[in-house]
User: Which sequence fits this backbone?
């Protein structure tokens, strides 16, 4: 028989061995393995395993890759809003806007001018020379209205510079655009650059007067002791003591008091004659630009005469405005020429250009400088190199022109040419080029007249602003010339209107049949577009839990600056013309901060031992700022919790999947904040227009979620016009198709039918999943996996309140013809002398009102300050590669295996403990039995 002491001793040995086994397994397979993995997942003391500190960094290779076949592209969708009733809307009815789209693009981006530089975000006394990754970005776009084959020959050198190498063909891209949609579809909406020009001139009335008079001469209107400017004084900056004209009421009053004899002044309304030279020219240019008609023959004229409008000096039986324009989707996206801005923008800036000169120039030389962009720093509306742009438009549009007619038609598509200049202008509408084409005939006639008589009166030789002789072949932007006494300076000039996307240089590959050359497109961007550098914090200092690790992958600069002006606070809840120049304005800047969405601060290993994950899917309970370039500010993204039924997002590699977290924009992103302007004039909006466009005054532009998600319910109707002292109305109705990718059919506002949904807050709230941006990322490492960024842009017409903006007083109507600012009108009338009031009352001119916006001549009844959506976009990018997910899945497998080993050892230990205890206790029981 075995001695009981031996059995008891054996049991104690088994117990001790079991303890040692489980303790060592716990330390090795749980504690040490967990520590090691935790350290790896957060970058081994560098803040992230995706840092770019090492020379062989895979992250650096990924971020600077130019292998377009493997590099993730961004799928882009734009949905536009078209005003279905433009004439009625501008006449005072509610705007009916209908969503069109989405229109699909694929964006390819590469970094260039890449450098690794010391970071400004590190607190290290010896900053790593590779702390920040600095670069500029070039973009090229495939339009997915057909199946597309693309090529590229870009390669990255070891020093991070770009070079060309062997051309590769990318996998074919299929058409994504719905069959009922086309890039030639028309969209009617505000012309943003026209809003910029309008703001630079304050309003329509002042803009028209500035075509003839200086700002001082306009300011002298109605001033005591100021006589009428003589013909040769109008527009002369030296003639500062005379008036441009006399307002209609004063003119009528003076005439009645002088027994019907008019005073020695020009009636200001003479400039507003529909059939006169100014409005006739403006209407013609607006129609070339796609401007909508706002008046037809038979309606009353603008000049207050009471006469019916018949036709303009050019035979048009409609008056067109440049405020609302119709363009193709192609032109809205990628840019188009404007004949209206080419001429009017030039002339309205002439005075500022003259005043900036140290010494006088001839009119032709001044025009050349202005029209080639050399004086943009001195004027409030930047013209750019109009002369060069006009010439390039001629190269693609001249073939569409008919002798004695217009230049109807479109330029050749981008896939039809490999010429870089022509690619950029691919598919543009050519009608604006009509005014340029006309210079060819005029200049040819001038040349013939001067050949016959070099001193022919009323004729001067044409001078192209680009110093070419293109007037003789295709026409040009003229800096000088006179035809029959008519000054041609500025005629034929086309302003380059930027698209809402980017310039696009993706055109035909001349060496591969039926292919688009993306490599050449990206190189063209690099060669032609001004670089705009950004930098990201990609290599923090070494350490454990140091503060700067929380800022891994944050932008340090964007577009070359570490902060950007986004808003000028003036106490008004809407953007106004004088905000930027007002000394009392508070300039609001937002610092460049937040990530791009590609990387976030890692949480490290957070998963139960033995599970096949390295994360529990819950990110840190903090805001995750993401920098949004189109807003020039960061937006806080937050984790709202697990999805319905506790479903967790997943990232999948080649074989296995791991959990991820989905971040959504904080619901308060566009809530009211008076300092930053957010939430003004409605919650759900961020005013961004103060620094947008070619004008120093900016324009009324607003940034927001699609369809004003998380915004005020009032945005969907906007009936309140109290800010313009007007009656309720002239708001908005928004419709969108309910048929998805199917053709919803033609829209009929009187009977929208089931295929169109009237948009209101309840509907938008129900569409959260398809409207809200989101970012998925892997929590333990901070790897951004995929993101869909969805945001929109809206515009409004400038307000023109005569109580706060003296320029607006020139548009007064004393016969109650306008529907706004009656209080200001009553105040202005009460301020007049008793004699004037009595005489004006006798003339029926005692009911002073004002137009409802800065569009205060052609469309006086449309209310300014109402927000009209123009478009919203979705940019979808998959950041994480299958290889990166496989690495994390391997970590998870390793962690699970370690857990399995520990659980196995624990199980064996428990068995050993059971046996050991049994051996000890069985022996005790045996001894008790024997002893009993």
Assistant:
């Amino acid at each position: 028989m075995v001695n009981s002491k031996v059995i008891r001793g054996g049991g104690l040995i088994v117990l001790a061995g079991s303890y040692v086994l489980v303790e060592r397994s716990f330390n090795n397979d749980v504690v040490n393995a967990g520590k090691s993995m935790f350290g790896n997942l957060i970058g081994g003391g560098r803040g992230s395993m995706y840092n770019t500190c090492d020379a062989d960094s895979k992250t650096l290779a990924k971020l600077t890759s130019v292998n377009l076949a493997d590099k993730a592209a961004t799928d882009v969708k734009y949905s536009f809003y078209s005003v279905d009733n433009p004439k009625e809307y501008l006449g005072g009815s509610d705007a009916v806007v209908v969503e069109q789209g989405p229109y699909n693009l694929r964006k390819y981006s590469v970094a260039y001018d890449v450098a690794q530089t010391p970071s400004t975000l590190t607190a290290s006394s010896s900053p790593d020379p590779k702390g920040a990754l600095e670069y500029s970005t070039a973009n090229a776009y495939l339009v997915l209205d057909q199946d597309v084959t693309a090529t590229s020959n870009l390669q990255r050198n070891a020093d991070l510079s770009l070079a060309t190498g062997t051309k590769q063909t990318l996998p074919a891209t299929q058409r994504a655009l719905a069959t009922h949609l086309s890039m030639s579809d028309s969209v009617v909406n505000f012309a943003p650059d026209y809003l910029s020009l309008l703001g630079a001139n304050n309003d329509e009335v002042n803009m028209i007067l500035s075509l003839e008079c200086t700002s001082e001469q306009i300011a002298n209107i109605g001033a005591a002791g100021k006589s009428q400017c003589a013909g040769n004084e109008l527009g002369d900056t030296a003639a500062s003591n005379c008036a441009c004209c006399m307002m209609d009421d004063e003119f009528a009053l003076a005439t009645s008091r002088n027994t019907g004899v008019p005073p020695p002044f020009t009636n200001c309304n003479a400039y507003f004659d529909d059939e006169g030279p100014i409005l006739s020219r403006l209407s013609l240019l607006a129609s070339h630009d796609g401007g909508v008609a706002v008046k037809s023959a038979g309606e009353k004229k603008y000049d207050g005469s009471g006469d019916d409008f018949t036709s303009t000096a050019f035979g048009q039986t409609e008056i067109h405005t440049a405020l609302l324009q119709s363009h193709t989707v192609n032109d809205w996206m990628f840019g188009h020429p404007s004949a209206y801005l080419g001429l009017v923008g030039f002339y309205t800036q002439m005075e500022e250009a003259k005043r900036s000169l140290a010494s006088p120039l001839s009119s032709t030389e001044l025009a050349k400088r202005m029209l080639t962009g050399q004086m943009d720093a001195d004027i409030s509306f930047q013209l750019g190199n109009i002369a060069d742009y006009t010439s390039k438009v001629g190269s693609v549009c001249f073939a569409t022109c008919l002798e004695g007619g217009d230049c109807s038609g479109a330029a050749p598509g981008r896939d039809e040419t490999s010429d870089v200049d022509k690619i950029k202008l691919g598919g543009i509408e050519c009608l604006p080029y009509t005014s340029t084409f006309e210079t060819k005939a005029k200049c040819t006639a001038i040349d013939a007249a001067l050949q016959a008589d070099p001193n022919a009166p009323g004729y001067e030789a044409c001078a192209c602003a680009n110093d070419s002789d293109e007037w003789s072949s295709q026409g040009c932007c003229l800096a000088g010339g006179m035809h029959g006494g008519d000054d041609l300076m500025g005629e034929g000039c086309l302003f380059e209107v930027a698209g809402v996307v980017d310039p696009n240089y993706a055109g035909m590959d001349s060496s591969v049949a039926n292919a688009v050359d993306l490599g050449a497109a990206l190189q063209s961007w690099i060669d032609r577009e001004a670089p705009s550098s950004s930098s990201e914090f990609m290599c923090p200092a070494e350490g454990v839990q140091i503060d700067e690790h929380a800022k891994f992958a944050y932008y340090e600069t964007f577009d070359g600056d570490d902060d950007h002006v986004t808003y000028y606070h003036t106490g008004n809840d809407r953007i106004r013309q004088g905000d930027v120049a007002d000394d009392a304005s508070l300039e609001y800047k937002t610092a460049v901060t937040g990530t791009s969405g590609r990387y976030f601060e890692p949480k490290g290993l957070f998963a139960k031992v033995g599970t096949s994950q390295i994360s529990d899917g819950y990110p840190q309970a903090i805001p995750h700022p993401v920098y949004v370039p189109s807003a020039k500010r960061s937006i806080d993204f937050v984790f709202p919790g697990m999805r319905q039924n506790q479903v967790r997002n997943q990232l999948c590699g080649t074989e296995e999947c791991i959990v991820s977290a989905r971040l959504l924009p904080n619901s308060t992103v566009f809530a009211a904040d008076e300092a930053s302007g957010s939430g003004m004039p409605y919650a759900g909006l961020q005013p961004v227009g103060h620094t947008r466009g070619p004008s120093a005054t900016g324009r009324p532009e607003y940034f927001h979620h699609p369809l004003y998600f998380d915004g005020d319910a009032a945005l969907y109707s906007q009936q309140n016009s109290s800010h313009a002292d007007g009656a309720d109305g002239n708001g908005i109705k928004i419709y969108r198709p309910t048929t998805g990718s199917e053709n919803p059919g033609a829209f009929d506002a009187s009977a929208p039918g089931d295929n169109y949904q009237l948009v209101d807050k309840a509907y938008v709230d129900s569409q959260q999943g398809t409207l809200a941006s989101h970012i998925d990322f892997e929590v333990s490492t901070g790897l951004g996996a995929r993101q869909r960024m969805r945001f929109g842009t809206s515009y409004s017409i400038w307000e023109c309140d005569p109580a706060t903006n003296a320029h607006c007083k020139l548009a007064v109507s004393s016969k109650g013809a306008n529907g706004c600012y009656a209080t200001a009108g009553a105040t202005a009338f009460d301020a007049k002398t008793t004699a004037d009031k009595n005489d004006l009352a006798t003339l029926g001119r005692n009911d002073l009102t004002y137009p409802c916006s800065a569009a205060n001549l052609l469309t006086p009844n449309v209310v300014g300050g109402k927000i009209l959506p123009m478009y919203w976009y979705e940019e979808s990018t998959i950041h994480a590669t299958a290889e990166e997910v496989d690495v994390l899945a391997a970590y998870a497998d390793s962690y699970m295996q370690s857990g399995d080993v520990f659980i196995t050892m624990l199980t064996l230990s428990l068995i050993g403990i059971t046996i050991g205890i049994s051996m000890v206790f069985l022996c005790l029981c045996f001894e008790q039995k024997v002893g009993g």
